[in-house]
Here is the input.
Amino acid sequence: MTLLQLRYIVKIVECGSMNEASHELYISQPALSSSVKELENELGIEIFTRHSQGIALTVDGAEFLTYARQILDQTDLLEARYKQVRPRKQLCRVSTQHYMFAVEAFVEMINSIDSDEYEFTIRETRTRDIIDQVATLQSEIGIIYESDFNKRVLSKMLREKHLDFHPLFRADLHVFIARTNPLADRAMVTMKDLEPYPFLQYEQGEEGSFYFAEEAVWPDYSPKQITVSDRATMLNFIVGLNAYTVCTGIDNEDLNNEKIVSVPLESDESMLVGWIVNSRTKLSHAAELYLDKLRQVVSSHGYSLIEQESDK
Here is the structure.
């Protein structure tokens, strides 16, 4: 086993494909595949599964990647100390449901980083993809919510993928509606009140189900229903179509523009928002910093943190 082979494995995971990794490493794909296969044979494990859509880390591969990154981090520290070469870039990758507070915290994290070089990624994506990306270490942290409705299904999936859920805060349900909506001045609205308006929900893919929905509740019947994949489209439809969506209620300056308002929704359900992490990994410094900023942002919006000190 060589350091070069370890760097190959890390680069393949970062790129998500053998082909792209070979281009960035300036070697041929057959040579890269052969090197990985030699390492797998030497260790007696399978690091990647190969299929028509690409590659994915196995359980053994995810564990191996954790050790490989630790070795490379220590190697880079040695090189920086004795060879006076530049240390590795700060890295942090986060996958999240479509939460503005998650992006706000990401901005705060980047602004506070004391580094000349960094490489950060934040993905607002589907619930199942968030879980898969953290399980395969494509992201260090995932941000999702649990409810009484989806908790059993999500908890089972997280256990199977060796992921830990850390509660962050609990939010009563709200809806985002246009400030021009007749319901905008209400102290609280019901699903019955919202019947005349288009219901907006985030797309969860062909394998999606109600258990993976970002909306904790939805109308029993909605004659006007629109599925979207990104937050900007969602906000535009709320204003342009006088539509609504169910949310935590946390807004920020994106919403505080006299166009959209958050109104409490009458419901027995709530959202337990938290972050997930692969139980076999140790978070990077940048990821820990992101979590600190996430806690600060949530607190600044008036929500009480509920995670235990041991989770920090």
Remarks:
- The chain has three domains: 3-83, 90-168+274-301, 171-270.
- The two ends are 35 Å apart (CA to CA).
- The chain has ten helices and twelve strands.
